[in-house]
Amino acid sequence: MIDSQSVKADAVVGSDSRGFDGGKLVNGRKRHVVVDTLGLLLGVMVTAADTGDRAAAQVPLGQVADAHHRLALVWADGGYTGSLVEHCLAAFALILAIVKRSDDMRGFVVLPKRWIVERLFAHLMRSRRLARDYERRTTSAEAMIYWSMTLLMTRRLARPHPGRG
User: Fold this and answer.
1) Ramachandran category for residue 63: left, alpha or beta (phi over 0 → left; psi -120 to 50 → alpha)
2) CA 118/CA 110 separation, integer angstroms
3) What is the per-residue pLDDT for 140?
4) Is 132 buried (19+), middle (13-18) or exposed (0-12) by CB count in 10 A?
5) Separation CA 8–CA 98 (nearest Å)
6) How far apart (Å, rounded) are the C-alpha atoms in residues 155 and 20?
7) Helix axes 115-126, 138-158, angle to 10 degrees
8) For a 10 Å CB count at each end of the chain, is N or C smaller?
9) CA proximity to 141, closest of 149, 131, 133
């Protein structure tokens, strides 16, 4: 699953790496994440918030395709339609399946399979350091996301499993 999240940037974030996301009305940065079916992070890229999803998706999808050779299908929302679908198939041998919202749905509805990445965003927002982007460099912001996911994975591994042992 691939998706993006716009977050507000702190005053220390330079104007060269921040932008205004007109859809969310956020002045800051955008986190582009790729997760597996368990909701664990496979790849992340942080850009200015005015960067389009289709343009930015090529980099994290390429990184994930190189690192995970068995990956064949990636779900995405309607913001990733267009030439990106053909590009993924030709360049990375990935099928980009668009999960679209039906016309009769009203309000905020989490679509099937999309709850996986929304759960990751909820976890990131629970991390105080990631509720707002405080990092000067985008690479530092990406490292903070990886650190937060490391904490989540170790908590899941350390959780006692009933019926074992």
Assistant:
1) alpha
2) 8
3) 95
4) middle
5) 27
6) 35
7) 100
8) C
9) 133
